Amino acid sequence: MTMEERYTLKKSNPALQVLIYIFLGIWALVNLFPLYFMFTFSLKSNDEIFGKNIVGLPHDWLWSNYSAAMYTGNMGLYFLNSVLVTFATIVLCLASALMATYAITRIKWRFSKLTNAFFMLGLTIPLQASIVPVYVVLSKLHWLNRYTTLIVPYAAFSLAMAILICSGFMVEIPYDLDEAARIDGCGLWGTFFRIIIPLMKPAYATVGIYTFLQCWNEFMFANVFISDSVHRTLPVGIKALSGQHTTDWGPIGAALVIATFPTLLVYIFLSKRIQESFIAGAVKG
């Protein structure tokens, strides 16, 4: 029996299909339950959260928790700060990665391989080991408590992976296109912007979503390098909602929803593009 016949037999077996759908349904519930719990958690009082109604729907839907998180907890400002820092980091990281990859893979020069190896060392450096030297450098430059305090380190630590992703796509672009562009009068920058950049679109989503996840949920740098409330991002702002003696957990749950759902929306709208980019990279490899 061939592989195709066995697959057809399994596909046409009603009992097997029922078992598969049951398993997938259970798996979906397991993965969706944390979202359900977090959303209902954000609409409850402390009494319901601690003992009276832990898992069920709220008895009193406290939408006021969201207003408390947005205005009393200043989540609106922290949300805008996270959006600004994340967007600027993605733009800076993607632009730097494309130019560095172009120089490494398309321009023939002596130290291209050594430069690529130097960039790849960034994959081996953990954030925890670099927090002290980065803090000292930022302090010497008087860059603490600014948006650039987070944008520059975030982009730097995301650059190695971005170059690795971009290299997988750029090396597969025929070099004949560069030579044809030069014959038509394009210089180095003209070839980069008119030929390479349009052909690298499949890599944009992959680099963008990777950088987004690195920046949006990052806590350690944001907590150490930012001490004022004006430039705080969402993870640090959520931590600030917990009091020293008593804590109202409903607004904290609302803040977690505000911080989490943008990530889900980004994945929902970009998941197809991400899958296409991974498939393209696999076929090229």
Short description:
75% of the residues lie in helices and 0% in strands. With 285 residues, the chain is mainly α. It has two domains: 3-41; 74-284, MetI-like fold (Orthogonal Bundle).
Q: Average pLDDT value?
A: 84
Main structural class? mainly alpha
Number of helices: 14
Overall 3D form: globular
State the assembly state of the protein chains.
Answer: single chain
User: Helical content, roughly?
Assistant: over 70%
Could you name the CATH homologous superfamily of the largest domain?
A: MetI-like
Total strand segments? 0
Give a verbal description of the structure:
This protein is mainly alpha-helical and 285 residues long. Helix content is 75%, strand content 0%. It has 14 helices and no strands. Helix 5 packs antiparallel against helix 6. It is globular, with a radius of gyration of 24 Å. It starts with a helix and ends with a helix. The relative contact order is 0.14. The model has no long low-confidence stretch (mean pLDDT 84).
Layout of helices and strands:
Layout (H helix, E strand, L loop, with lengths): L2 H9 L2 H28 L4 H7 L11 H9 L2 H31 L6 H9 L6 H14 L7 H23 L5 H8 L4 H12 L1 H16 L3 H6 L8 H7 L8 H36 L1
